[in-house]
Design brief:
By secondary structure, the protein is an alpha/beta fold. It has 18 helices and 13 strands. The protein has helices at 2-28, 33-47, 51-70, 115-118, 132-135, 139-155, 206-216, 229-240, 296-304, 312-317, 322-336, 356-363, 371-381, 388-419, 439-443, 445-459, 461-464, 475-486, and strands spanning 80-81, 93-101, 105-114, 120-129, 169-175, 179-183, 186-189, 221-227, 244-250, 254-261, 277-281, 432-437, 467-471. The radius of gyration is 26 Å and the shape is globular.
Length: 489
């Protein structure tokens, strides 16, 4: 009886081996590139964004912008009031500080402004890592740690930074977590993200928490402004160029802020600001529409994410997700055809193993034999000995995903330009400048070039000549200091 069981198990193992060999031989017969391209074309058609569809997407976003300005909860776009109603003119003078808390590190900055003639006279900063235990500890301990770093930064100053008697130091606080803003200098935390989990801070005013911690440190400093990093990008850009009307983040995540007429904000019930303007934080990552080219790969990624059903637009255009979409496409195709050899590479089955910087390196390879592509596939995915045809195909997949993202981002910018009435030629031919920050825009040249070309298509050549895209480096830091300066007492 025992021999029969052993014999049966051995037989099953042998049959399994034979089946495996047959499958491998079948896959080894060669890649049917015609069939591969056919499958790719089908996926590509679902990602396609002809100009008319982009205009429809922009119109849908503009409609949502109106709804979000009319009432809280009226749209997927939150259209948050930033309470920034005075933008820098270039004439700001004095010493101002910024605290930029956006993740596991934070920066403290000191900015000396010299007015119209001097501009930014001096800018210094220090970066501090937050110990992991403070990210899940108590609110008291976290803000004490931050205030201590601020106090140490101030204590290291020389005589040239001495503050006049009776004057407080003023700080712009960039806090890149979901906040319900209550005024320019107050806002309650909705939820932590990015690995932080301190329940007692949720629902509390983060400016009040920081202020109490600074008082415990004996630091005489006032938080003049609480800002989002996108608003900071807009303000930093406006300081350099008075025609900046919007700030956009295209990095790991994505968002946009723009200058709106205060009279066009029905949900603003207070007295209109003297400037007649208000910066709006769109939170555009949450835009959703049946017009968006969502594929099976995007649906699966969204379903498996930490926030299914949310941030759909961001999942199509931001650096956090582009490499992952490429991986999913390559996995699906390699399961059907042996483009990477007789078996599916095990690493290709690992979520988020292919990051957008690696995707960018593959996409930008201009060598005749695509040796960078070969190197990236080997180092990142453990794929060896690829043919030139396979490498070219991988580049094509990267191009498809990046192009879709860039064209969608251009449609979002076009929606803002339409909303503020800058999509037609004016008599004075006024410039409209869009300040963009973020590693995706800065480092992924194929993405940024495609975005700019698409925006020109959407605007038409004549109007496009009056619209300028500018890279605004480090807007979130210096922008907070500038907002503090603009709203200084």
């Amino acid at each position: 009886m025992e021999k029969r069981v052993v014999y049966t198990a051995a037989t099953i193992a042998a049959v399994a081996c034979v089946v495996a060999v047959i499958v491998i031989r079948k896959r080894s017969k060669g890649i049917k590139w015609g069939k591969v391209k056919e499958m790719f074309k089908e996926i590509e058609s679902k990602c396609a964004l002809p100009i008319e569809r982009l205009k429809q997407i922009a119109s849908a976003m503009e409609t949502e912008m109106h709804a979000g300005l009319a009432s809280d909860g009226g749209s997927k776009l939150k259209m948050l009031l930033s309470y920034v109603d005075r933008l820098p003119t270039g004439g700001e003078e004095g010493l101002f500080y910024a605290l930029d808390l956006g993740g596991t590190n934070f920066r403290v900055l000191r900015v000396q402004l010299g007015g119209k003639e001097g501009g930014v006279v001096r800018q210094e900063y220090q970066e501090v890592s937050i110990p992991p235990h403070l990210m899940v500890g108590s609110s008291h301990d976290l803000f004490d740690f931050i205030a201590e770093a601020l106090s140490s930064f101030v204590a290291s100053e020389g005589e040239e930074y001495k503050v006049p008697e009776g004057k407080q130091r003023e700080l712009g606080f960039t806090f890149s977590f979901p906040v319900k803003q209550l005024s320019l200098s107050s806002g309650t935390l909705i939820k932590w993200t990015k690995g932080f989990c301190i329940e007692e801070t949720v629902g509390e005013d983060v400016v009040a928490e920081l202020t109490k911690a600074m008082e415990r440190q004996g630091l005489d400093m006032k938080v003049t402004a609480l800002v989002n990093d996108t608003v900071g990008t807009l303000v930093g850009g406006r300081y350099e160029d008075g025609d900046v009307m919007a700030g956009v983040i295209l990095g790991t995540g994505s968002n946009a802020a723009y200058v709106e007429r205060a009279s066009s904000i029905p949900k603003w019930h207070d007295e209109l600001p003297k400037s007649g303007e208000m910066v709006i934080n769109m939170e555009w990552g949450n835009f959703k529409s049946p017009l968006l080219p969502v594929t099976e790969f995007d649906e699966a990624l969204d379903f498996e994410s930490l926030n299914p059903g949310e941030q759909i637009y961001e999942k199509l255009i931001s650096g956090m997700y582009l490499g992952e979409v490429v991986r999913r496409v390559l996995l699906k195709i390699s399961e059907e055809f042996p483009i990477f050899g007789d078996i599916v590479p095990p690493k290709l089955e690992s979520p988020f193993i292919l990051r957008t910087p690696q995707m960018s390196g593959i996409h930008h390879d201009s060598s005749p034999d695509l040796k960078v592509v070969a190197k990236k596939l080997k180092e990142t995915l453990g794929i060896h000995n690829t043919s030139i045809k396979t490498r070219k195909f991988v580049v094509d997949v990267c191009d498809m995903v990046a192009k879709r993202a860039a064209r969608l981002a251009a449609a979002g910018i076009y929606a803002i330009i339409k909303k503020i009435g800058r999509d037609t030629l004016s008599d004075d031919k006024q410039r409209t400048v869009i300040a963009i920050d973020g590693g995706l825009f800065e480092h992924y040249t194929a993405f940024s070039d495609c975005l700019e070309r698409t925006l020109r298509e959407l605007l038409g050549e004549e109007v496009a000549n009056s619209v300028v895209i500018k890279h605004a480096n480090d807007g979130s830091g210096i922008g907070a200091a500038l907002i503090a300066a603009s709203h200084s007492n």
